[in-house]
C-alpha cells in the first residue's frame, strides 16, 4: 500500500492500523532549532482523544505519545535537529472481536468494498489503515507544524451538526476549549441544542454529520503559488484526506456562487501604517493560490458515521445479499473529534508552504 505521506518540505508519513500494536508518524523536513515539549504534543492529542464524553466513541485510549528521534534535550525542552522526527502512540483498548461478524461483509458507506476490490485483502478490525484512528498521528505532526511558522495560530470549531447550526453572533473562541463544551462549538447557547439532538440520534443507534470551520491567523502573505502549488489547493487536499470528509470550501466557498462581483470583491485601501487593508475576506485569505496575510479560513463537511446499529442492506465477499449491523464503539457524530484533526492538517499545509516559500525566495 503506497501513498502514506503528504507534504513536500514538511513531509509527514503516518503508519499503523486501528487494531495494531501502535500507530505513529515520521516528520521529515522539520527545520532544526524548533523548541517543543512532549506536553505540547500531548495537549493536542488529548483534544482528539476518544472516550471523553457520551457523544463520542467509548474506546478508552490514553493516546500517550512517545517522541523517539529527531531531537536533543535542552532542559525541559526538546530541540529539533533537522533529522526525521518519529512519534509513536500505542493502542491499548482494541476489541477486535466486535468485528468478527463482519469479517466478510461490506459495511455500507465504509471503505470495506473498495479496499477489498483494490488490494484483495482488508483488515476488518475497525477498518485497519482506513480507520480514523490513524488521524492521531496527524494531530501529533500538526502540533509540530504550528511551531514552524512564527506567530501562527490555528483554531477550529464545529459550526453545524446535522440540521442544527450555531448562532455566529455568539462566537467565542475561548469557549471552544471550555471543559463544559463537548462539541468544540464557539456558541455557548448551542451546547444544549446539540446535546438534545445528538442524544436522540445516539439512542436510535444512528449517526449524523457536521460542518467544521478552521481559521489560521498569522499566516504570512505570499505563501503558495498561482498554478500547481496553490495554498488553498493543498489545504483542500489535506482536509479531504481526513476520514469521512465529503466537501471542502475556502473562504465563502460555495456561497460565492450566489454573489455578484461587487459582493464578492475583497476591496482594498491603504492603512495608516502604509500597508494595504482589506475591507472583507470572502476569499478566505488566499487569492490566486497565494496568501494575502489575512486569516485563512476553510470549512469541511463530515458525513454521518457509517458504523450504525440500524440494519443496512449490503453484500458479502461471496456476493450474497446480507443485512449489516455494525457493533462496537463508534462516534455518533465523528465530526466532533474532527476539529483538532482539521487544525492539524491546515497547520501542516501552511508549515510546508512556509518552508517552500523561504527556500524559493530566501525571505519572509
Runs in which pLDDT lies below 50 for 5 or more consecutive residues are none
Main-sheet strand order equals 1-2-3-8-5
Continuous helix count: 8
From the spread of the alpha carbons, the general shape counts as globular
Mean pLDDT: 91
| Largest β-sheet summary | 5 strands, antiparallel
**Structural class, from secondary structure content?**
alpha+beta
Computed over alpha carbons, the radius of gyration is 21 Å
Distance between the termini: 38 Å
Q: Helicity level, as a percent range?
A: 10-25%
Total number of β-strand segments? 19
Oligomer: single chain
Which percent band covers the strand fraction?
15-25%
H-E string = EEEEHEEEEHHEEHHEHEHEEEEEEEH
Question: What topology does this entry show?
Answer:
Blueprint: E1 5-6, E2 11-16, E3 22-28, E4 35-36, H1 38-48, E5 65-67, E6 71-74, E7 77-80, E8 85-90, H2 112-119, H3 135-148, E9 153-161, E10 164-165, H4 173-176, H5 190-203, E11 210-217, H6 231-240, E12 245-250, H7 261-264, E13 268-270, E14 276-278, E15 286-287, E16 290-291, E17 296-302, E18 312-315, E19 321-324, H8 338-361
Antiparallel strand pairs: 1-2, 2-3, 3-8, 4-7, 5-8, 6-7, 9-10, 9-11, 11-17, 12-17, 13-14, 15-16, 18-19
Helix pairs in contact: 1-3, 1-8, 3-8, 6-8
Amino acid at each position: 500500500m503506497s501513498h502514506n505521506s503528504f507534504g513536500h518540505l514538511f513531509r509527514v508519513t503516518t503508519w499503523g492500523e486501528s487494531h495494531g500494536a501502535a500507530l505513529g508518524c515520521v516528520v521529515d523536513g522539520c527545520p532544526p532549532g524548533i523548541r517543543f515539549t512532549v506536553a505540547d504534543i500531548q495537549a493536542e492529542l488529548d483534544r482528539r482523544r476518544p472516550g471523553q464524553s457520551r457523544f463520542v466513541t467509548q474506546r478508552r485510549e490514553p493516546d500517550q505519545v512517545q517522541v523517539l528521534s529527531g531531537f536533543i534535550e535542552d532542559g525541559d525542552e526538546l530541540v529539533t535537529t533537522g533529522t526525521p522526527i518519529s512519534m509513536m502512540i500505542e493502542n491499548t483498548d482494541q476489541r477486535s472481536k466486535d468485528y468478527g461478524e463482519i469479517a466478510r461483509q461490506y459495511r455500507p458507506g465504509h471503505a470495506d468494498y473498495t479496499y477489498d476490490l483494490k488490494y484483495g485483502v482488508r483488515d476488518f478490525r475497525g477498518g485497519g489503515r482506513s480507520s480514523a484512528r490513524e488521524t492521531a498521528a496527524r494531530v501529533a505532526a500538526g502540533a509540530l507544524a504550528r511551531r514552524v511558522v512564527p506567530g501562527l495560530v490555528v483554531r477550529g470549531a464545529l459550526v453545524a451538526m446535522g440540521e442544527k447550526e450555531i448562532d455566529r453572533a455568539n462566537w467565542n473562541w475561548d469557549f471552544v476549549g471550555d471543559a463544559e463544551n463537548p462539541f468544540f462549538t464557539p456558541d455557548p447557547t448551542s451546547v444544549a441544542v446539540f446535546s438534545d439532538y445528538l442524544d436522540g440520534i445516539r439512542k436510535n443507534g444512528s449517526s449524523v454529520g457536521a460542518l467544521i470551520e478552521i481559521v489560521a491567523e498569522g499566516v504570512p502573505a505570499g505563501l503558495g503559488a498561482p498554478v500547481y502549488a496553490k495554498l488553498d489547493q493543498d489545504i483542500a487536499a489535506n482536509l479531504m484526506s481526513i476520514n469521512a470528509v465529503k466537501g471542502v470550501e475556502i473562504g465563502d466557498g460555495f456561497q460565492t456562487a450566489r454573489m455578484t462581483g461587487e459582493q464578492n470583491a475583497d476591496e482594498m485601501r491603504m492603512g495608516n501604517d502604509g500597508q494595504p487593508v482589506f475591507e472583507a475576506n470572502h476569499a478566505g485569505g488566499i487569492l490566486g493560490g497565494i496568501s494575502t496575510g489575512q486569516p485563512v479560513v476553510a470549512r469541511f463537511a463530515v458525513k454521518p458515521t457509517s458504523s450504525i446499529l440500524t440494519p443496512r442492506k449490503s453484500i458479502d465477499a461471496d456476493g450474497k445479499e446480507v443485512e449489516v449491523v455494525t457493533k462496537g464503539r463508534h462516534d455518533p457524530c465523528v465530526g466532533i473529534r474532527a476539529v483538532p484533526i482539521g487544525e492539524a492538517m491546515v497547520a501542516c499545509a501552511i508549515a510546508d508552504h512556509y518552508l517552500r516559500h523561504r527556500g524559493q525566495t530566501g525571505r519572509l
